[in-house]
Design a protein that fits this description.
By secondary structure, this protein is an alpha/beta fold. It folds into two domains: about 60 residues, no CATH class; about 100 residues, Metalloproteases ("zincins"), catalytic domain (Zincin-like). It is built from five helices and eight strands, in the order βββββααβββααα. Strand 7 and strand 8 form a beta hairpin. About 25% of the residues are buried.
Length: about 190
Amino acid sequence: MPADPQPSVTSPPPRSTPSGPVEVRRSTRRRKSVSAYREGDRTIVLIPARMSEAEERRWVAVMLDKLAAKENRNVLGDRELSERALRLSEQFFGGRARPASVRWVTNQNTRWGSCTPSEGSIRLSHRLQGMPEYVVDYVLLHELAHLLVPGHGPAFWRLLEAYPRTERARGYLEGVVAAGRLPHHDVAGEE
């Protein structure tokens, strides 16, 4: 995507994230739209000049997640998903959660994942495909935890405390659900 041709307001110098530096460009001509794109190893986020610093921080995080999801379109197959579940079980649960099968399904439209502990089977909704890795990992860990603890009681949530991105992933998923109730915007955030 080419640079924003609109006049811009100077923003603070670029910041760095694990995915590289982020440069925020403010435009006096932008009213509502926010967009982002990669330029080499840096991320450019285009926002209206009137946005507050808090709104800027929120939108930068949203747009980084959207770009990561877009770039993560090379979806894991069922075999890779199973291997990932085993790695997560080892890392966060000492390898105690051992699923017999882990697979994507297309018939789960109201849940992100499900688990049948008696069979050791875990199913993830195809709607997770393309979402950031930390979100898929959270849902996998959530279902792995059900192999160890049924229900959603205190012991279940204590298991998930080991994953440092639990709260962020839950917030992301809540945002996806909430966004489903709003008018549709494209991946770049344009209205």
